[in-house]
């Protein structure tokens, strides 16, 4: 295809003097940006900088503040559009909120049906695919190396597997502009490499893309340009090579690995907090966990790792009580005997996972979200009490979010909302923390800060089970490591006293 023809069939976009408010808070100010065919943009900036809202504005799901001088112009097939309505179906957006929507609405279609909705450009399957469309979907599964997932139910997939399916869905729509919001989160090393390899192959296409990320290992060699946001304004924009972009995102691992001063306080009587014996777990028709044996004692900190689909999230949700152990196996939780409600265990357990962010209404006040943690509920059934407020304020201070107490979730960035989830989990003064990829979507400074606060809590004697793909995210006080592979324990070892 000639360069002139490629430019004609591709989509370009111009933003001038763009402001964006959420509620009464300024999110973006005076943004000027032009995206041309064949450009491949890396979008960076700290949590709260406005990256997700900027991508949503490009996609047409949020609108700029009317000032009389703003311009949002799309050009496609020789025509200009001042509103996204004429081109919105040509723009594919993949991010955490779309993924979480399936959990929220319990859309448990088979993975091939989910990818098929990309062909149909609908949220849910509306009809059977034609033979030609079916071949197109099958080719995408092969292209991303996820053919084994095609007939699996979406909600039985791991977090990373769901992300790959949604990338395939976006490609199925044959977009003219692709927007990727932190899509490498939750991918294991193998799938991460597959994803970057695919991004690097897009040099053959005139389709422009924008990829938002916080991590230097996510930077693809194929990027051509970088836009950096800082507190809602453009700090820098223009052509940039991958090497320079990686330098901007250089990770200082000392912030994660530094040990806390002083010996860790661990209980003398190391009582069992939770134990699984020969545990099998089934979700729908899928057998997710097989013959799991795990014993967490007071003061332990277990790190759980393994490839996508190995069962990490299911293990944590089983411990929490969201999934049942099949007959023939057992799970024992401290203080929970026959006749004692499981709720008693949940009320002393902190649980943080990415999917929880979609369970709370966007307009829910931050104080209500955090206070609901005292009851392990989504929202409050009654008006917030003085005791609720006291515990919520203490938890917000613990995680450096006290200044956000008067806002709603809709005014939070994705990373800020994650900190609110930490505060919510600690509002119940927990003795055990279950953390499922808790730092996904967070910038370097936020990850380091939350790691420090978690280490301080562990040093006070807390117990923890954390699932992560990243070695630098292991807490300083890690005592045990469990590797899962194919739903089975590959290895389990003690690291000794922290």
Mean pLDDT: 90
> Number of DSSP strands?
19
**Name given to the CATH architecture of the largest domain:** 3-Layer(aba) Sandwich
Class of the largest domain in CATH? Alpha Beta
- Total domain count: 2
**Largest pleated sheet:** 6 strands, mixed
Q: Give the percentage of residues in beta strands.
A: 15-25%
Strand order of the largest sheet: 6-7-8-3-9-10
Give the CA-based shape.
Answer: globular
Helix content: 25-40%
**Separation of the first and last Cα atoms:** 60 Å
**CATH topology of the largest domain, which one?**
Rossmann fold
* Helical stretch tally: 15
Secondary structure category? alpha/beta
Pick out the low-confidence regions. none
Written overview of the protein:
- It is a single chain.
- The protein is 30% helix and 25% strand.
- Strands 6-7-8-3-9-10 form a six-stranded mixed sheet, sandwiched between helices.
- The chain has two domains: 3-251, P-loop containing nucleotide triphosphate hydrolases (Rossmann fold, 3-Layer(aba) Sandwich), CATH 3.40.50.300; 255-494, 3-Layer(aba) Sandwich (Rossmann fold), CATH 3.40.50.300.
- The protein is an alpha/beta fold and 498 residues long.
- The N and C termini lie far apart (60 Å).
- It is globular and about 75 Å long.
Summarize the structure.
This protein has 498 residues and is of the alpha/beta class. It has 15 helices and 19 strands.
Attribute tags:
about 500 residues, alpha/beta, Rossmann fold, six-stranded mixed beta sheet, 15 helices
Secondary-structure map with pairings?
Elements: H1 3-9, E1 11-22, E2 25-35, E3 40-44, H2 51-59, E4 71-76, E5 79-81, E6 91-94, H3 96-105, H4 111-120, H5 131-143, H6 159-172, E7 177-181, H7 189-201, E8 209-212, E9 225-230, E10 233-239, H8 242-248, H9 254-257, E11 272-283, E12 286-297, E13 301-305, H10 312-320, E14 330-333, H11 343-346, E15 349-352, H12 366-371, H13 386-398, H14 414-426, E16 432-436, H15 444-459, E17 463-467, E18 480-485, E19 488-494
Helix pairs in contact: 4-5, 4-6, 5-6, 13-14
